[in-house]
Amino acid sequence: xxxxxxxxxxxxxxxxxxxxxxxxxxxxxxxxxxxxxxxxxxxxxxxxxxxxxxxxxxxxxxxxxxxxxxxxxxxxxxxxxxxxxxxxxxxxxxxxxxxxxxxxxxxxxxxxxxxxxxxxxxxxxxxxxxxxxxxxxxxxxxxxxxxxxxxxxxxxxxxxxxxxxxxxxxxxxxxxxxxxx
Length: 181
Prior knowledge:
- This protein is an all-alpha fold.
- The chain has six helices and two strands; from the N terminus they run αββααααα.
- Helix 1 packs antiparallel against helix 6.
- The radius of gyration is 23 Å and the shape is elongated.
- The chain starts with a helix and ends with a helix.
């Protein structure tokens, strides 16, 4: 196997890992969107006028605030799941590439290197190495905060403007799409 082929193999492994992460995160976002939309529909069914949100009903008894808090909890759960997916998949990719690189080095040098498997906690620590001044957890926490505020803003505007459930769901979907991309 040539060096070019070895590099291509490493690239295929990395691409496969990246695609697995993207698929898993996409599933998480779809679930979060569906749960969020179900919660909004429930409130909309109770507090609408002619198919549109009734702002006065939503502001009574802090209903809008309760809905926002409920959605914020869903987003918190989404990010907890995202962190686990990212940590698990990156750790797996890190270990696979480490083992493959060790194999290549042993094959090329014809020397037994006696490398050992890296403990998972050390792999997680390596994954959490700061990028652009922030760790992966800090980046995820920042994004979680931003998406909660964006959804709260979109939901509040939908209620004030008396939007339909369809318009509201599109606004929420755009907010989640911005975060996912």
